[in-house]
Every structure is written in C-alpha cells, then in structure tokens.
Amino acid sequence: MKCKSLLVAGIAFSAITPSQLSAAPISSEEAAALLDRLNQLEQEVASLRSKLSTVETVQQTQVEQVEQVASVQKEVAAKDKTVINWKGAPEIKSEDGWSFKPRGRALFDFANLSAPDSISVPGEGFSNEARRVRLGVQGTVPGGFGYKIEADFADGVELTDALIEYKSGNLKLTVGQHNNFQSLEELSSSNDTSFIERSAFTDAFGFERKVGISAEYKAGDVLLQGGVFTDNISDLGAANDSIGLDGRIVFAPKIGNAQLHLGASGHWRDLGDNITTVRYRQRPLIHSVSTRFINTGNIAGATSETSYGLEAAVISGRFHASAETHWAKVNRMAMPNPTFFGGSVEAGLFLTDDKREYKGGVFKGVKVKNPVGSGGIGAVQFNVRYDRLDLVDAGIIGGTQDGYMASLIWTPVNQVRFLLNYGHLVYGDALGIVPGAPNNYSVDVFGARAQVSF
User: 43, 45, 296, 402: which could join 426 in a potential S-S bond, CB 3.0 to 4.6 Å?
Assistant: First the structure.
C-alpha cells in the first residue's frame, strides 16, 4: 500500500509543471481534476499489471506443455527403437521383439557330361538349368516366436520351408515343414556347400524337408535334436500316411583356433499302409542331367526304413575337412532286408585369408575379408572329395558309384558365388541300369554355377 501511495505521489508530482510550482496556489477545481487524473493513471497501471500477469501465466503453461510433449516423445522413442540392417536384403528390427526380412536365392547351373562311346545317354553333352530360384520371408514375433516361409520357383512352385519356431534359452521348438536332422551336409544350406551338389547318398536315400514337430537343445558344446515327421508337404494326403522318428547328437568343441564337429544321427520311418515300394537312385553329380547311372528300381514289399549316420569335421584357419557315412536299411515282408551304404570324405583350402564358417551344428558361408569393390579379390577356395554310393545288397543290384571330384569357388562378396566342378565317376555292377550300359564303366562331368543369395 505504501508503494502504491508513493507511485501516486510520484505521478502527481511529475504531472505538475515547473510553471505550476512557481505560480500561485491552484484552485479547488484544478486540484479535483488533478486527483481524477491520478486515479485514472492508477487504474491503468493496475490493468497493465493484470495483463502482464496473464501473459506470464500463459507462457508458463505453454512451456510446461512443450516439456510434457518432449517427455512423451522421448519415452515413445525409447520404447520403439526400430533398426534397419542390411544383410543382403533389409532386415527390420524393433526393440520389443518384432523383425522382418525377405530372403531368397538364385542358382544357375551349366554342365557337360561325357559318357563312353559304348552307351547312349539321354542328356549327354551340354545342359543347363535354373537349379534353385527361391523367395520367402523370415522374422521374429515378441515372446520368443519366429517364422520362415520360402518357396522354390525353378520348376513350378514348390514350398520348401514353412515353419513356426519358439525359443526359450537353449531350447528351440519347431512346427511345420523343415529339415529332419539327417546329415551335416544335408542340413548345411545349398548356398554354402563345397560342390554344386551334395554327396550322392543325401539324394539317393531321399533326404528332404518334411512336415513335423521337433525340438533342439544346446548345452555347452553338445547339441541335441529330435522330432516326429510325416512327409514332404507336396506328398501329404489320404494316400500317404507314413510317419517317422529322427534324432541327432552333435559334439562341437573348440580346441585352440580349431573348430571340431562330431555327430551321429538315427532315423526310422514307417511307410504306412499305402506305400509298398521304395527306390534309391542318383544323378552323376550334376542335376541338369536326369539319367541315373545307379538305380535300385522299385523294391517291393517294403514296410519301413531304418538308417543311421556318422559325421566328423574340422575347421582350422584356411583349411577344412569333413567325412560322413550313412547306412539305409529297407525292412520288407517275408524277404531279405537290404542295407545300402553312402559316404564321402572332403577337404578344402582357402587360397585367400578366409575360412569356412560353422554355427549350430552346420557349415555356414564364408565372410569375405577382402571383397571386390573394397580393394580385394574376394575369397578363393579349392576343394577335393571322394564320394561313395553302394546300392548292392540282399539280391538288389542297383550298382556302385565312386566319385573323384574337385571344385574351385570364388566368392567376390558375401552374397555372390561362382563355382567350377569336375567329377570322374566310376560305376560297377551297373549292367543294364542304363540301356546298353556295360557292367563297369566311367563318365566325366563338368559343372559350373553362378549364384546370388540374401
């Protein structure tokens, strides 16, 4: 109140001109007018103070609102960190567990087969094909779930992988169409194999993806895999009621810089009521030739199949080696039960400062250290393999095949590979399997592949 009086007095004093101070005393009317003017000025000051207070309140409210919006935006950003990585194709990941990635591959093969002059082989000479053209997607879902769907378009449309996974710690459960744990080379992706085709026994014994449910558990260096499977999704239906059990155990320790792999697998398949015959046969290293020089024909009276295999491998710096054996027994009604054998031994060496990768009980692709485009020449790898397939037992004469093979692989960048293959294949007990073929002979094959994968 005191300040107010002083302010009024000051204004009043300022309103009095020097001439008024030096003049005679003011009249009562002039004093009243001056007092009215002072009151008016006091009201204007009070109004200005009120407006100033309102402006300050609005500004403070706006500042608080801006701070609240920024806090909410920061909180949302912390909860929803979406990251896009590039792994041959964009992979989208969110912090809460969602991810999505397209996947695919294109493998184009060129080959030449030379057979003896004594036989005429369909497909002899030059051939070529789109070996695989696949497209699909894969990803994860919050809660530990994952999915993968992929189809091959090289020859019509064929569903390859179609599965749902659940992971919790070291345990993984899978439902749908997927591989059923039959071989190190079979489980390794065709993008990463050392030759354009896998060892002969993997196709001859009918290894393929099947619909089923499986479990995998990893404890240190030990990996346990097992499942119950029916048939490939393209073969399902009322006419096919087979069911099988598959299991695999892997011991994969690291000794110094060397990665070791020791494995064993066992398989049993009841053919059901609608399958009474089985057949084992194989192409000569290259897939673009459909002629089978080794073939059991239809084996009648079959009720079930039992097979088991052994695996061993090592990766040490630029060098790798692997060996596999597999036995397949046909159980028949009131007839002898033949057991067939397949196996291979392989060794490879990188001529560049690269190495073969390994993870989860299978081989993985090379991670090129000096790719083309970054001052390097990519990865160069040389491999040799001996491959044996024996389809002769218990009165079944499907022939034997001994393959002596070599390959040269150039991987300029991680997603691109070029392969050159040579194979000298020696056949025995093969009389009449190919019309006009002698009992013993050999063929030579050259193969080449260009591939891209993501």
Answer: 402
> Residues of 13-24 as b/e, b for ≥16 C-beta within 10 angstroms?
eeeeeeeeeeee
Which of 83, 87, 108 shows the shortest CA–CA distance to 367?
87
E strand segments, 186-283: 210-219, 222-229, 243-251, 254-255, 258-270, 277-278, 281-282
Q: Residue 207 and residue 81: Cα distance in Å, rounded?
A: 42
Amino acid of residue 372: V
Distance (Å, rounded) from C-alpha 18 to C-alpha 420?
Answer: 113
Confidence of residue 273 (pLDDT cuts 50, 70, 90): confident
Q: Of the ranges 33-47, 71-85, 346-360, 400-414, which one carries the lowest mean pLDDT score?
A: 71-85
Q: What is the DSSP secondary structure assignment for residue 445, as one 8-state letter?
A: E
- Which tokens in the block code for residue 396? 């079944």
Angle between helix axes 28-79 and 2-15 (nearest 10 degrees) is 120
Of the options 2.60.40.10, 3.60.10.10, 1.20.272.10, 2.40.160.10, the CATH number for the domain spanning 82-453: 2.40.160.10
In the chain, where are the structural domains located?
A: 2-79, 82-453
Contact yes or no for 312/346 (Cβ under 8 A): no
CA neighbor of 165 nearest in space, from 210, 103, 209, 215: 215
Q: Is the pLDDT of residue 244 over 70?
A: yes
Q: What per-residue confidence (pLDDT) applies to 21?
A: 42
Q: What is the pLDDT of residue 8?
A: 42
CA 277 to chain centre: 36
- Nearest partner of 102 among 139, 148, 137, 152, judged by Cα: 137
Q: How many CA atoms lie within 13 A of 124 on its CB side?
A: 13
Please tell me whether the overall predicted TM-score, pTM, comes out greater than 0.70 for this model: yes
- Rounded to an integer, the average pLDDT of 316-342 is 97
Give the integer Cα–Cα distance in Å for 281 and 239: 23
H/E run at residue 95: none
